Amino acid sequence: MAAVGSGRGPDAEASVEAVFREERGRLLAALVSRFGDLDLAEEVTSEAIEAALRHWPVDGVPSKPGAWLLTTARRRAVDRLRRDQVLAARIAALQVEADRADPAPPADIDGDLPDERLQLFFTCAHPALSAEDRTALTLRCLADLTTPEVARAFLVSPATMAKRIVRAKRRIRANRIPFRVPGPDELPQRLPGVLQVLYSIFTEGYAASGGPRLQRLDVAEEAIRLTRVLHRLLPDEREVAGLLALMLLVHARRGARTAPGGGLVLLDDQDRSEWDHPMIEEGTALVLVALTGGPPGAYGVQAAIAALHDEAADVASTDWPQIVALYDVLLGIAPSPIVMLNRAVAIAMRDGPEAGLALLDDLGDHPLLRSHHPYPAARAELLRRLGRRREAADAYRRALDLVGTEPEREHLRQRLGEAER
């Protein structure tokens, strides 16, 4: 066994942790592909990692750690199946190796761990599962978050999240959802579901739905990591590049979005020198990939809008006419009340608050926007700019009734106090 550092020092522990983070999703996907059982794959993946934690700090990280983990996990899985008489026929059908699992760790191993995470992406995001179940299962299986960590990300109890994950797994079994990448005829219909799951995870990290913090950076960064994986697996899919670009261009502002005490800092007031400019450069390059070679997709257009914000020296010099034009394109591709809300705000920046407010008032009866705090908050801001303070105060109160995070709530309280004075 070739070793990458040996002993129990911090370097060895860091190496082991880095390997687990990179290899766990690939290992789980390979085991699900071989045995067709997500629960079994999760159990033997955990056992293989536990074995590595015992042996690697002493013997060193093997030259092919993924293959080491796969061999160990596969032996454990075969041993479990053999002990289960009910599954004897299944073992024969799988034609797995005949030797019993060796309790000792595998020695030198040839070959690499196959990367079958793409199949796992599509299994976790299958349309037979509910939107909540798809997101929870993706975080649990591909992001390597524990059930309590997934529960914290979405502000539910661990027991509730455990039931959600179990329900998703049962539905996969009951519906016999295949572990495979959709064919070329299915991919255009199935890929948007995968992208929506990843975008939902990122949105919860970038703009938390509730709690004491405005952002959950660990959740946002995990969404970016998973989207990078998907982009490596599907390099020719322009909407995957568009989604990754959008995440990077928005996440690049993370350091300037909150004050030292955790308070909200609006885009107008952010110190743009604190933005992550290498991340902006990477995202901008991906925008070109997303918008080249065919009709634009929704994520590519949103990424282009984010790039215009990131490239501007300040709010006043932002290319608002181009942003409005891009929102017009986006309305043609993926119309939604949220897009119309954002377009109205962009028009207010281009043509003045009265023009934007008229559009917002036309949207006031939409049920989604009535429960979406950015809508009354946007109206309040435009009313404040027009000097209509009493109406602005009413809109701020409405937004306060709907807002989720404490930093946003405090910001709205301050604005309300100013309007009342």
TrEMBL record:
Database matches in SUPFAM superfamilies = Sigma2 domain of RNA polymerase sigma factors, Sigma3 and sigma4 domains of RNA polymerase sigma factors
Keywords from the UniProt entry: DNA-binding, Sigma factor, Transcription, Transcription regulation
Q: Transmembrane ranges?
A: none
Keyword Ribosomal protein attributed: no
Query: Any idea where the RNA polymerase sigma-70 region domain is?
Result: 20-85
A GO BP annotation:
DNA-templated transcription initiation
Positions of the DUF6596 domain: 190-287
**Does the record's keyword annotation contain Isomerase?**
no
Q: Which GO terms describe its molecular function?
A: DNA binding; sigma factor activity
Pfam families on file: DUF6596 (PF20239), Sigma70_r2 (PF04542), Sigma70_r4_2 (PF08281)
Stretches assigned to the RNA polymerase sigma factor 70 region 4 type domain: 124-172
InterPro entries for the chain: DUF6596 (IPR046531), RNA_pol_sigma70_r2 (IPR007627), RNA_pol_sigma70_r4_t2 (IPR013249), RNA_pol_sigma_r2 (IPR013325), RNA_pol_sigma_r3/r4-like (IPR013324), WH-like_DNA-bd_sf (IPR036388)
| Protein family (similarity comment) | Belongs to the sigma-70 factor family. ECF subfamily.
Query: What is the protein's given name?
Result: RNA polymerase sigma factor
Species, as recorded: Rhodococcus xishaensis
